[in-house]
Amino acid sequence: MSQTAPAAEWTDRTAPTLDDFAAIARAAFDALPEPFRSAAGEVVLRIDDFADEETLASVDVEDPFELTGLYHGVDIGRRDSLGPAAEPSRVFLYRRPILDEWCERGDIGLSDLIAHVLIHEIGHHFGLSDDDIHAIEDDD
């Protein structure tokens, strides 16, 4: 049986801000083991409330609550060895959909969920597909 906090403990709590999410994501990134952290070191982390309409359309998602994160860039396996990528690789984490999933699930801490989404998107930076990432997760 899970312990619940008394109602009074929740009366002064607010939802984590974009800055709170950024701090949690940065801590998760900093906790990545080497050599993964170094290989992902150039990735720019960005936290937004939701993906914009253009982004949702580009990944064929209609409901903005369905997209918790997104990798944008050229994965390191497809880069030209003669020079850097044209623009920096970016990982977007979407605060509201992550909060929604966290509330619906109720079986994972928020920091763990943010780390999970971040690591999933960094997997794309390394050239892994969703199927590859899910297979790795299933082996854990």
Automatic annotation (TrEMBL):
<protein>
    <recommendedName>
        <fullName>Neutral zinc metallopeptidase</fullName>
    </recommendedName>
</protein>
<dbReference type="InterPro" id="IPR010428">
    <property type="entry name" value="Zincin_1"/>
</dbReference>
<dbReference type="InterPro" id="IPR038555">
    <property type="entry name" value="Zincin_1_sf"/>
</dbReference>
<dbReference type="Pfam" id="PF06262">
    <property type="entry name" value="Zincin_1"/>
</dbReference>
